[in-house]
Structures are given as structure tokens and as C-alpha cells.
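To whoever picks this up:

The parser on our side crashed when reading a file containing two proteins. I've narrowed it down to the boundary between the first structure block and the second sequence. Both blocks are reproduced below exactly, byte for byte. First block:
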Amino acid sequence: MSRLPPSNVSNMPVPESHTKTLEIEVLRQITDALHRAADRGDRTESKLDDIGNILHKVDNRLTVIENNSLDREVERNRVSIANLDKRVLYLEASNLRREGAMGIVEWGVKNWPAIIGFFILIAIILEVTGQINIGVRR
């Protein structure tokens, strides 16, 4: 307990009935102060509960917003993937056409003597059978 400030009252003896009354009054004041503190604590606890509920609602809203934005982002990614798949298919087809054309050219370069010989053979057969006239007959 805190001490009372010194007063100008002399150290006179106080009757015991007054002492008990003062003690009861001090106890009553302490009890009232504790009740006020408890009330403030209850109000604070209630406010903390309210704040906790509000934070929970905000958290739920943020979760919904994040889910919605994630859904939109997933949908954008699906569209992007579909577009990329189309591009890849086009590029693969283009590459296969190029490879096919180069394969024919490479085959022709490797086999040009046989190709020329084949055409000469066909021309000779057609000339002999009389279907074409090359003008080589003597």
C-alpha cells in the first residue's frame, strides 16, 4: 500500500471505531476500483473480440479475392497455353514440310545420275516405240 502524504495533524491517537471505518472505506474504494478495472477489462475484451471477428471477416474476404484472382489467372494461363499449343503445332508442321522438301532435294542430289539415266531410258523407249520423235534417228 502507498503511504499517505504527511499532514499537519499531530500524532493523536485515533479511536478504534474510526480506524475500522477508515479501513472499511479504503477496502470499499479498492473494491470499487477493481470493479471499474474489471468493467474496463470486460469492455476491452469485448472490443478485442469484435476486432478479432472483424479481422476474421477481412481474412475471409481476402481469401475470396485471392481465389477469384487465382481463378482469373488460371483461366488466362489456360488460354495462353492453348494459344502456345496452336503455335507449336503450326511450327512443327512447318518444320516437317521443310524437312520433307529438303529430303527430296537431298535425295535428288544423291541420285541425280540415276534420275537422268531413268529419263534417258524412258525417252529411248518412247522413241523406239514411236510415241515421241526426238530426232535422233539416223
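<<boundary where parser fails>>
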Amino acid sequence: MKRALTATALLFIVLGLSACAVAPFTTPKSGHSLGKGNWQVDASVLPVPGALVAAGVTDDFDAGVLYEVQFGSVISAFGKYSLVNNRTGWATSLYAGAFTAASVGTTNGYYVGPVISYKTKTVEPYISIRYSWVKWDLDGATEDDVDDSIITIDTFEPEITFAYVQTDFGFNFWVKESFGVNVHGKLWTVFDDNIAVSSTVMPGVAFLFNF
């Protein structure tokens, strides 16, 4: 436990100091739609602080925006459509979004993926497998400017693009219908020989508020 807490603290510090952003760490945590006219606030604590606000546009489609403090400040907009939308039991959704960020350089990109969950009255396990494409514009920056990043770049260039998959697996514990506690883990898989990341599972904690 002590080792895990230390690793989490170091990750939090490094993320705040690093130069280049990636796609939002925050992902949808349920295959269920919010339902037309309903809202949710997803307040992330770990691995990075952030807030996601989503609204049910229709019974099966949600739209939202999010803000994160990671490798710089990240802003994103997304949509989520539920293919299987049972009130309890299994649910499956597809979601996609775009993001932008600015720090030493500028970052832009998009992401897409499914989220599958199984909801009971109090517990909802889920898994999200998200593909992300990232473009770093580092014009005017130097290799030293991005040395603090936990992402290792083999060959430094003014413009770098890469793709990776972020897998989230965890549980929503619903204290009541309007409030839940989320605990999950994140794992990255990068599809670029020029980019290397830690293979460590990153712990995540968030609080969910339904309105």
C-alpha cells in the first residue's frame, strides 16, 4: 500500500511538471446513457485532477465537455451513444471526442472507443478500451523542455504524432442513485517505436454526481 501511494504521488507531481499533454485520462465510466434531460458531473481526483460535465441529449445519446490538469491544461468535447442501454444489467456504448492543450508546445488530437458495464443497484463494473491519436507541435521548444515528461521520446522533432490505447477497468460504487464513488486502473499501450511509456497500471479515483 505504501509503495502504491508513493508511486501515485510521484506520478501526480510529474504530470503537473511535464511539458506535453496527451488525450484526457478521464473516460466514460458506464455503458448506460444518462437519459434525456439528466446531467452528470465526474470529478476526477487520480491520476490527474479534472472535471467532466455530461448531459443526456436523448435517451441514448450523451454529450459533454471536460477539463483536466495533466501535462498542461486539457480541454475536450465528446459524445457517447448507447447501443445497449438497459436500466440495469449489461450496457454498451461507443464514444468519441476531440481535445486541445497548450503548455511548452501545443497538443491536439482525437479519441474513440467502447465502454461496457454491468449495473446492479449498488455496484457497476466496467471496462473502456480507447484509441487515442495525439499531435504535438513543439516548434520553438527544445528536447530539454520535454525532459520532465514520463513519456520518453527517442528522436526529438518539432512535430510528433503518435497513437496509443488506454484501457480503463474499474467499479462504480453507487452510494445512492445521485452519488457514486469510482475506483479504477489505467494502462497504456503505445503504437509508435519513437515513443515509450511506463507499463505501470495507474490508479484512478473519481466522484460521480447525477442530477
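After patching the parser it read the second block fine. The first strand starts at residue 39 and ends at 46. The helical segments are 2-17.
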